[in-house]
Every structure is written in structure tokens, then in C-alpha cells.
Amino acid sequence: MMKMSSQLHHAPSAPLCHLSYSQVQIRAYNKVNKECYPTLKNRLTGATIVSQPSITLYGAHWCPDCRRSKQFLGEHQIPYEWVDIEQDAVAEQFVIEKNDGKRIIPTIVFGDGSHLTEPSNAELAAKLGLKTSIERRHFPFVVLGGGPAGLTAALYTAREGIDTLVIERAAFGGQAAGAEKIDNLPGFPDGVAGIDFSNRLRQQAERFGVALLQAQDIVRVHGHDNYRCVDTAGGDEFSAQAILIATGSRYKRLGAPGEEKYVGAGIHFCATCDGPFYKGKEIAVVGGGNSAAEESLLLTKFAGKVTILVRGDSFKASQVIQDNVLRDPKIEVRFNTEVQEFLGAKAKLNRLRLVNNQTGASDELPVEGAFLFVGQDPNTGFLRQSPIRLDRWGFIVTGHDLVHDGDRPPDYERREPVALETSMPGVFAAGDVRAGSTKQVASAAGEGATAALLVREYLKRV
Ligand SMILES: Cc1cc2nc3c(=O)[nH]c(=O)nc-3n(C[C@H](O)[C@H](O)[C@H](O)COP(=O)(O)OP(=O)(O)OC[C@H]3O[C@@H](n4cnc5c(N)ncnc54)[C@H](O)[C@@H]3O)c2cc1C
């Protein structure tokens, strides 16, 4: 194999029509412009070895459909190899050959030799065998989002005989699936790889007969008589007596090169979760608000040194916290500083390229880890047209917080909302998407279980 690949390297002008599919694959694989994703098996065992995936995505960096396909595969935790045809003439020829003389990207080649050209997400999902449709349109209980909160709720209700559907747009497991290792989950004394935990949750939900629908984006929640309805981007509508919204949130990113590559491999968003991995090490914190300052103080309990990188020329954190930060001997603060690029080796972050936004001077900061505290976006865009009340950041308001501020929702004139119930009776919210939630796996699962028990009681009344 090696001999064949080095021969190919030295004979770039060899006619491609004579190269077999596997030869071209090997050729492309040896180019530097490849990105490999850990196979499921490796992720399950927590090993860091990266083996060759069986899907190859041929595209170019400027191509929006290539980015969409990359995102789809990434979100579904499906390993693939990325080949930029603009940096690889052999791969480009291969794509042209596959598409009857046309240079069309993305072209996605599968392990069995078959390929799809410019596939929609639905076509890609069907090819990958994801369950993207279901005959039944009504369930007593429908859960939106298949993360720890949603799957825990679903397995509770299904176990009690309540037919339950979970609708998920990406891979089951939610954000937890992206955690390299979850160390703070009760019952796992040695920690657990996020992907392993997510697979277990899904298997457990399946064991209790939860109906799982994947690769379906929820676009609307609305009420119709006594029913609660959900529309998907694929054009399907599902009705239910009760709904749980457990669509989580997304930590804001900086958008700097290298960032997506090192999330979970040196880039983190939670000091409580991942701080203990950095005992005695040098790390960076990005952000200038209260959470960045508070979490930096927490991180000094573990790290040898914490460098806080603040984009502006001062903190936005409260004065007391700022004073504590500036007094701490383990903390160095760099104002007017932005991360230009995340750099690393062997699939692990090891330094940041920084730029001073006043002087333009740039330098590199060696770090073992970087914690980003630049805010969170709740996944509630699909609620914009609904009467479900959101707080000013877009998180869902529930329970007695709905009536606390004197602005009682019209549907609660005659009764109080129960905990986790939203301003639309019969629609509940749990986990990271809920205003006031604590953004942890254990608490998301706990809220999911609580929501399931509340839904059970609610269903007895309707
Ligand atoms: C890299 C990383 C590491 C972490 N490590 C830890 C840790 O070690 N310990 C810990 O306690 N916590 C950790 N967390 C936080 C933890 O993962 C979250 O608190 C937890 O997953 C929240 O669960 P959830 O079910 O509320 O939401 P999520 O996990 O966010 O799940 C929500 C699900 O809803 C789906 N969804 C969203 N919008 C739609 C839509 N419109 N249509 C269909 N589906 C939709 C999403 O795809 C997702 O699967 C980590 C988070 C990250 C990102």
C-alpha cells in the first residue's frame, strides 16, 4: 500500500482513468489537505488514534454546499475524510470522472464505491440509513431534541407506557456527545466519553420503545384546539397532547481558524466540567464578562497559570470579581487581545496565535487548554412565531417565573403553571434551553426526568 501511494505521489500526471477507485482514495488520503475525524470505535474507547474513514467528501473551501455536507456529517458524528480538490489535481480529475466529465462538488464517495453528487441533507440521511420519516403523526407526548434532557424524559414516559416520539436534527446525545470525557456524571467513577454516554442514552430509549426521528429540523411549535403541534423543515406536522422542548443551546464560538477542530480536544466551555483535567497546566480563558472572570477564578484551583484574553480594554465583569481576578497571582490579563488562530499537533490544541487589536502586533501563546466564555445561544429560533415566552437572551421561561413579574400569561388565569411548564399550557421545557438551567449533563437529565413526571400528571387531566 505504501509503495503504491508513494509511486502515485511521484507520478501526478499518470492518467487518472487508469487508476482504480482505491488507488485514487490512497492518493488523496496522502495529501496534506485532508481532515480526518475519529472513528466511532476510537471515540468509544477514548483512544486518540485516527483511522481512515470510509466516506470521502470532495469539495472546495469556498463551496457552501460542501460546508453544509461537512456540517451534516459532523453533527451526526459520522467520520469522513475531506479532500479539497483545488489543492489536489488527482482528486479533481477523480471528481470529474465520477460526474461524467463535470466538475461538481460536493461529491461524496462511500465505502461501497457508490457516490452522491450535491446531495440534499435528506438524500445524505437516507443514504446513511438514518431514520428520517415515520408514518404515525400523533403521539401523546413529543419531545423536541435528543440530548440528555430529551432522551431522559422520553425513556421515563415510554417506560410507563406513554407512546413517545423524539425529533432530533443531528446525532442523538446533544452537546454531551461532543465532550471528550465527562468526568462529573454520577455513576461513572472513571468518567465516560461523551459519545459513549450518548450511545447508551439512545440505546436505553430504544429499549423502552421510544420512537426516534433523526435529521429533522423543527421549525415551528403551535397549538390547535387541545393539541400541541410541531412542524419540521421536511414539511411534516406532528400533533401531541403534551410537548417537551429540550433543544439545548450552543456555546458561542469565536469563528477563528482551527476552532472547530479542537473543540473537546483542548477547547472547552465549562470550567466545572473540564477544569480538573488541567492540574498544574497553563491555560487561557477568552472573554471579559462575569462568567469569564468567575470561571477563571475557579480554574486557578486547578491550573498552574491562567491567561485571560479580553477583546476590549477593560472587563465587563462586576467590580468585586474584577478585583479578585486582578489580585490573583495565578492570573495574567491581556486586554485588547483576540485569538487569531487555534494551533495544535496530533489533534490536540497546544498554542494560540494572538493579535493586539490596537497595535496589530501578533504573537503565540503556548497553552494546554483554552476555555471560551463568550456567551451561549439557545436553540429557540423556531419559537419566534409562537406564544412561548422567552427571556431577553432567548431562553424559555418556565414555571413560577412566568407569573413572578406580574405579566401573567393569559392561559394561566385559572391555574398556576407547574414547574418546567411554558407559557403555553401542555408545553414543557427542560435542560440547557430553559432560562435559569445550570448547563450540566446531570442537571439536564434530572430536568428531563422531572418533566416526564409532570407530563404524566398533565396527561391524566387532558
Ligand atoms: C464540548 C462540550 C463539553 C461538555 N462537557 C461537559 C461535562 O464534562 N460535564 C457536564 O456536566 N456538561 C458538559 N457539557 C454541557 C452538557 O453537554 C450540556 O449541559 C447538556 O448536553 C445539555 O443537555 P440538553 O439535553 O439540555 O441539550 P443539548 O445537549 O444541547 O441537546 C439538545 C438537542 O436538541 C437538538 N436540536 C436543537 N435544535 C433543534 C431543532 N430545531 N430541531 C431538532 N433538534 C434540535 C440538538 O441537535 C441537540 O441534539 C459540555 C458541553 C460541550 C459543548
CATH architectural type of the largest domain: 3-Layer(bba) Sandwich
CATH homologous superfamily identity of the largest domain: FAD/NAD(P)-binding domain
Largest sheet: 7 strands, mixed
Ligands and ions found = flavin-adenine dinucleotide
Radius of gyration: 24 Å
Strand coverage percent: 15-25%
* Annotation, overall tally of beta strands: 22
Q: How do you describe this structure in short?
A:
With 462 residues, the chain is an alpha/beta fold. 28% of the residues lie in helices and 23% in strands.
What does this 3D model show about the protein?
With 462 residues, the chain is of the alpha/beta class. The chain folds into 3 domains: 4-128, 3-Layer(aba) Sandwich (Glutaredoxin); 141-250 and 395-459, 3-Layer(bba) Sandwich (FAD/NAD(P)-binding domain), CATH 3.50.50.60; 259-374, FAD/NAD(P)-binding domain (3-Layer(bba) Sandwich). It is built from 14 helices and 22 strands. The strands form 5 sheets. Strands 6, 7, 8, 9, 10, 11 and 22 form a 7-stranded mixed beta sheet that branches. The chain has a 5-stranded mixed beta sheet with strand order 1-3-2-4-5, sandwiched between helices. The chain has a 5-stranded parallel beta sheet with strand order 13-20-14-15-16. Strand 18 (348-356) and strand 19 (362-366) form a beta hairpin. Helix 7 (148-159) runs parallel beside helix 8 and helix 11 (290-299) packs parallel to helix 12 (319-327). It is globular and about 65 Å long. The N and C termini lie far apart (66 Å). The model is unreliable at 1-52 (pLDDT under 50).
